[in-house]
Amino acid sequence: MSYFSDIYNGIKTLLTGMSVTGGYFIRARKGSITQQYPDNRETLKMFDRFRGEVVMPHNENNEHYCTGCQACEIACPNGSIEIVWDRQVDPETGKKKKMIDKHIYHLGMCTMCSLCVEACPTDAIVWAQNYENSVYDRKYLTKVLNQPGSKVKAGIED
Amino acid sequence: MVEKEIENKMKTEEYFVNMGPQHPAAHGVLRLLLTIDGEIIKNVDPDLGYIHRSIEKMCERDSYQQIVHLTDRMDYLSSHINNEAVCLAVEKGLDIEVSDRVKVIRTIVSELTRLASHQLWWGVIGMDLGALTTYFYAFRDREYINDIFEETCGARLTMNYNIPGGLMFDIHPNFVNRVKEFLVHFKTKLPEYDRLLTGNVIFQKRTKGVGVLTKEDAISYGATGPVGRGSGFACDVRKTHPYSAYDRVEFKEALFTEGDSLARYKVRIMEMWESMSIIDQLIDNIPEGDIKTPTKAVIKLPKGEFYQRVEAARGELGVYINSTGTKNPYRVKFRSSGFSNLSVLNHITKGAKIADLVATMASFDFVIPDIDR
Amino acid sequence: MNIPLNITKTIHDWLFSIMPEGVATVTEWVIVAAAYLALFAVAGLYLVLLERKVAAWFQLRLGPNRVGPWGIFQTMADALKLVSKELTSNANIDKFLYNLAPYFVILSSLIAIGVFPFSRQFQALDINIGIFFLFAVSSIGVIGILLAGWSSNNKFAMIGAMRSGLQTISYELSVGLSMLTMVLLTGSLQLSEIIEVQRTGGWLILQGHIPAIIAFMIFMIAGTAETNRAPFDLVEAESELGAGFHTEYSGMKFAYFFLAEFINMFIIASIAVVLFFGGWLSPFGITDDITWFPETIWFVIKVLGIIFLMMWFRWTFPRLRVDQLLTLEWKYLLPINLVNLVLMAIIIWLNWTI
């Protein structure tokens, strides 16, 4: 007798499964979860905290907040950040001061761990939300974050 | 004489098949050297090392803050739990206590990670057994959790949300609402998982009595997590050695005694329910408090050995740190669940068929980077 | 009069008017063969597209939608790509058998498609042992699969081929017996005759009471197994054997296997439609009086319905294990089928048919 109840139960469970997929088939138009990515670029917005790449914001006077303290360079686990710095005479105070020459960021090595952004005492580097980071040559992945001719904003060390 | 001749002519041979390193059922670069007699498996010889990235050695080079992000890449499906384990170990060494808020948030995110991991596993076990549709349903639900992670932590998989002494930043204002939204959604979808796959007679036949692991073997091989609990081995670290906020929530330890693939499946389904109930209990009353307990910029653990065990999605994860008092650990060892669980595989699949091996492996839910590290 | 008949008749008359009888006959054969080949290719390609679309809708996806409107040229593009690809092969293969195997598979399904009555006049061959012929021809395909697995010097392909052998041999019994159950009812093996029986007495699935429904269920299960589709796709079993018997095939040879799978599905569905659902007959005879109405449409609609059912199976169920596959056949389907055959005989003997 269990032979027939097996058959009955088997068919019942199979039909239950089919009812689930069948239900989705009928509601296929509405339930589709596909994002048609390259087409929806305009509407696709990343979350505020999304870690796309590290950038250094500059204000309208081409000034950044990086004092060259190298905290990010030390915090980085895989050497993605290199800071080329120099001691220059500050024209206003006349004292010698640490100034960054180049803040080099290797996007190709970055693991997006966010330790550098956390370590930065002046919030000079932040995460950008761009997500299309592929390039044809990996040399483009090495970026200089401070813009040419930029200088540190006065009074940021204090 | 004639019989002998026939026997000679009918002589069958065992043969070797390389299952992997590139194989759809291996979920990564696991190489299994199978000795097969027809369809019957005589021996399974796992060959590791195809994705060895020497994470433990790299830890000796890095500072304690930097270790955390490496553990993301071990068991990438329970990355937050791995991070938490390292942070708890370092906090133990520093002898600092994190605030209640951190504990609760860590617990909620850990359970979400576990849910996401189990959802992916559910999709994959269906796919390994031939029902491809489960994969898409599972990913639909997993997307909710990934969005929560992306909004709060900034990344979907390798989040690196923990730092020794707390969390990197506070939860996003939308976090609570999104988690509640997800719970409402998933509570309607989890019964659907059961209707689609659990009850299915083919699925039952494929998993019931397949790859049976006895409780004694589970203990002696050190199988933990759903694999151990499917065999009746009560090994949930959240129960036995509560950490973070697990001591203040009520939940049942999913425990089945059959020890077969179906029992392991049921453990995971039940764990999903329990995870949701844990989140339910915590989400409404996240206490106020500091998000970081201040530590020195350069963390130096005192001389000694520190061990912390947590319950990752696939079993017990142990973090052993041996410090000589410098800013880098002298030795870090991760006791990963996947490695111990893999060692059981040969024992329980002998005499089974190739399809059984696939079903057993799917029920073990291997993540190969966790095994190789 | 029916439109397709008019066209064929016109061509037939025209051919015989301009050339001698022998040449005209041969020319006609060639034209018919070419037409069937075209039908074969188009049906195969669009079944692939349908499969992909249906799968997508089951799985909350959109499916192919880039090539042409709603992706209708997607499979054409795929076929073009496959034609242009290199035919690679393994080392130390049995070259002759390796190259022969895809043709076995595709020819068997191509031959079978010739005997179906797509409408009253649209039938290339109306032989009096139609069902038997179909049954015989469709089982040649397994030889191709066995050869492919054996010759490609790959252990996974070999395992797949061996599985295919035992699967087809077992399930052919069920397919045959369930067909036989229905043949009892019609008393003829000729396909046109079978449909003619249903014109007066209603579709066979209704005529035959419960045994016919049981026979239909068994036929669907065994037919799905015959076509090596999920949940019986142990031959390919991608999570176990990679791609099974056609692991080592590439380009157009792979496409032959792929197309043959879908044409086999079409064949199984067509047999089911002829045997159980009245072939090209309209439901309740609603278009019987409309002379210009192409009856092929009813045939195609019914076939697509059955094919949809098979796709539904495929995208819902997990795969069986080898021994369970055999258990299902020998312990469940075959005994039920034999009892069912006796039941059907009793029903006919007592003249309980509608």
Features:
A: 158 residues, alpha+beta, Alpha-Beta Plaits, 2 domains, 4 helices, 21% strand, C: 354 residues, mainly alpha, 14 helices
Number of E strands of chain C = 0
Q: Strand order, biggest sheet of chain A?
A: 3-4-6
Estimated share of beta-strand residues of chain A = 15-25%
- Morphology of chain C: globular
What is the count of β-strands of chain A? Answer: 7
Multimeric status of the protein: heterotrimer
Largest sheet composition of chain A: 3 strands, antiparallel
Succession of helices and strands of chain C: HHHHHHHHHHHHHH
Quickly give the CATH architecture of the largest domain in chain A: 2-Layer Sandwich
Mean of residue pLDDT of chain C?
A: 82
Beta-strand portion of chain C reads under 5%
Helix content of chain A: 10-25%
**Would you list the SSEs of chain A in sequence order as H and E?**
HHEEHEEHEEE
Secondary-structure class of chain C: mainly alpha
How many separate domains make up the residues of chain C? 1
Counting H and I runs of at least 4 residues, what is the number of helices of chain C?
Answer: 14
Greatest interface: A-B, 28 and 36 residues
What number of structural domains do the residues of chain A give?
Answer: 2
Rounded to an integer in angstroms, the radius of gyration calculated over CA atoms of chain A is 27 Å
Describe this structure in words.
- The complex is a heterotrimer of chains A (158), B (373) and C (354).
- Chain A has 158 residues and is α+β, with helices and mostly antiparallel strands.
- Helix content of chain A is 25%, strand content 21%.
- Chain A has helices at 2-26, 28-31, 71-75, 115-119, and strands at 53-55, 63-64, 81-89, 96-106, 126-128, 142-144, 151-152.
- Chain A has a three-stranded antiparallel sheet with strand order 3-4-6, with no helix packed on it. In chain A, strands 1-5 form a two-stranded antiparallel sheet.
- The model of chain A has no long low-confidence stretch (mean pLDDT 83).
- The longest helix of chain B has 29 residues, at 100-128.
- Chain B starts with a helix and ends with a helix.
- Chain B has one domain (53-372): Cytochrome-c3 Hydrogenase, chain B (Orthogonal Bundle), CATH 1.10.645.10.
- Chain C is mostly helical.
- Chain C has one domain (85-349).
- Classes of the chains: A alpha+beta (158), B alpha+beta (373), C mainly alpha (354).
